[in-house]
Amino acid sequence: MKKTITILLALTLALTLAGCGRSASSGNSFYAADKAAPAEATEEAYWEGDYVTNESVTSTAYGGMEAVPARREAKLIYTAELELETTAFDDAIAALDDLVAESKGYYEDRSVRQGGYRYGSFTVRVPAAEYDDFCRQAGEVCHLLYANSSAQDISDSYYDTDSRLQSARAKLARLQELLAKAENMQDIITIESAISDTQWQIDNLSGTLRDYDSLVDYSTVRIDLREVYQLSDAAQAPLTFGQKLANAFTSGLRSVGSALEDFAMWLAYSWVWLLVIAAAVVVVVRIVRRRGFRFRKKKKAAPEAAETSENK
Q1: Which domain holds residue 284?
Q2: Shared domain check, 166 and 66
Q3: Which of 3, 83, 100, 303 is 20 to 30 A away from residue 238, measured at CA?
Q4: 301: how many CB neighbours lie within 10 A of its CB?
């Protein structure tokens, strides 16, 4: 019986290696099918799966069955970055909240900095189907300064992980069959150890696929929202000298006003410390005056005395 179990273990290992090799070859056949695609097949038809990009190994040479086409869907992770500004910060926040709710998304991260002009940083997850509309409407809710969108293709990693997961599940099933037939304690321990390792591999691969699915199904949009006194003008007509001079004068007054506001805010935050420092200075001055401390100046030597010392 021990010899039989050993032979079965060897067969299991051989089948596992064969499954890995077959999954690798099927991954390469994707590229081969891509290169051999019909000339009339467009890129849109390719992504929509209108023609076969891969085939399962069920040809007539393996039992007389016909080849079954296996469509391969592209797995794309969409990410966008938006920089917005507004003169009505509270209204903009409310509009963004409504937009997230309408898009059936959620805030993955949300923070607002108070004090002076406010600033908000948001990470929004929206369904991939709502990604384009959400980015467009977010740029319309506030004044758009900067927008960047990117798509990461993880198709190869996704389907390679899925193939390894299927192989691991098949291996687990074979090991469980061997465990049911094992009678020797040493064989049972060896098979149970292999089952434990395989189960860990299945859990790890399943978690990776869940992460991939989350990133693919829900796109990520990072938004920076700033409160400003006046919106930045993306495009302006050429200005005359008088207009430039008036704008410079206005900007100078605005900067002075902003500096005075900052100084007033600083005084509001620091007035207690200023009082403490002023009181300390007054106390030190009074102590010095009571003790009659004076800074005495050195008397200049008489000219005659200076000449006598030089002659000596």
Answers
A1: 242-293
A2: no
A3: 83
A4: 9
Helix/strand/coil for 111: strand
Both 141 and 95 in one domain: the answer is yes
Q: Are 84 and 143 in contact (CB under 8 A)?
A: yes
DSSP helix/strand/coil, 114: coil
Residue 29 CA to residue 16 CA, distance in Å, equals 20
Q: What's the mean pLDDT in 63-92?
A: 77
Whole-angstrom distance, CA of residue 100 vs CA of residue 94: 10
Number of H helices and number of E strands within the chain?
A: 8, 5
Asked if 57 and 119 sit in the same domain, the reply is no
CB-CB contact of 133 with 123 (8 Å): no
Q: Is residue 309 part of a domain?
A: no
E strand or H helix that includes residue 236: none
Asked whether residue 111 falls in the same domain as residue 211, the answer is: yes
* Token pair in block for residue 120: 């908000």
Confidence of residue 284 (pLDDT cuts 50, 70, 90): confident
Query: What sections of the chain are H helices per DSSP?
Result: 2-35, 43-48, 89-102, 131-141, 155-181, 185-217, 241-290, 303-311
The CA-based angle 72-76-82, given to 5 degrees, is 165
Give how many domains the chain has, as a whole number.
3
**Are 23 and 163 in contact, with CB atoms under 8 Å apart?**
yes
> Can you tell me the distance from the alpha carbon of 109 to that of 125, in angstroms, rounded to the nearest whole number?
9
> What percentage of the chain reaches a pLDDT higher than 70?
68
- Contact residues for 243 (Cβ-Cβ < 8 A; gap 6+): none
Residue 54 DSSP label = -
At how many degrees (to 10) do helices 185-217 and 2-35 cross?
20
Overall pTM surpassing 0.85 (yes/no): no
